[in-house]
Amino acid sequence: MAVSRKLKKQMSEGGWIRKMFEEGIALKKKFGEENVFDFSLGNPVIEPPRQFHRELRKWADKPLAGIHRYMPNAGYPETRASVAKYLASQTGLLFIGNDVVMTCGAAGGLNVVLKTIVEAGGEVIIFTPYFAEYIYYIDNVQGVTVTVPTDDQFLPDIKALEKAITKKTKAIIINSPNNPTGVVYNEAVFKKIGSVLRKKESEFGTEIYLISDDVYRRLVYDERKCPYVFDYHPHSILVTSYSKDLALPGERIGYVAVNPEDGGRDELVAGMVFCNRTLGFVNAPALMQNVVRNLQEASVDISQYEKKRDVLYKSLTKMGYSIVKPQGAFYIFPKSPVADEIKFIDTLLKQNVLVVPGKGFGAPGYFRISYCVDDRVIEGALPRFKKAAEEFGLS
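RE: above sequence
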């Protein structure tokens, strides 16, 4: 056997997003790209903003000597300081550059954080539905995943959270705006989570970290607020990337920021710097660290995503689909017309429409549509969604 039994099992069970994405590639070759309607991957269709291209040209045309060499494993001091200044302006907290570690995207950042704080057998709580890769990141550090349900609006079940926390609980990962639901956690949710954590820390005499995956923070609609995690729990860590707000997923550039009010922040950051190196990331990409340094407030035009959301939500609900209206990110998570969503997804697939089953996010009976696509994909798919709705008796 070429791969371990454990990995083979994980490969067969996981990776629904990539499975559907690769299915889409095959269909496009067979039927032509214009005849395939692929909503599988959160791969931004909007190009990076002009400020990004300006900075990229600046560094390409007039590079400093040594720009492609190693730097400290935590990243360029100037870039870390720039991130810290931005976070301070947003939160009112006294962030400094040493509170920030530049990483290979948010995925790299989450792996670095978990490696730093989780012992073998330590428990990490995630809420369903969840971004599927979390389970594998936790397994990478020999941690144990504990899932906690959400309510009918996909907000965390606080009572269930309190019951799930044990002496082995080391961290909770939250993701708002959420992938796959598009739900944004409001201030009340953050307060309740923080209150539970402080209570349980006192009860068990342990530290429980609240890790916030903030990759979609800038993609929030309807003038809704997206709270920062730092105000609600002292042992809090923000992990993010520039993949969504600057449309740079392929550049693998992000960062981790530790709450400056965490008494153990220096040791925590030192551990992350060490893990950034020993996990094999070494450091975040040098060129991109320089490019994003002056882009802390830049973003793609999120109104384009908001318009796509509105078209899909209005059209699908009119067809009879049951949906919690997304408030951010670029995903919509309808309930399947039948309990076995794979059956429904296969029906869509026969019409060259690709979506991802909810079971890939720990939520069977739903399916995810990623609407960071060209308008023509949405327009072409809507009649097919309608046909499927009629076939399964929606009205």
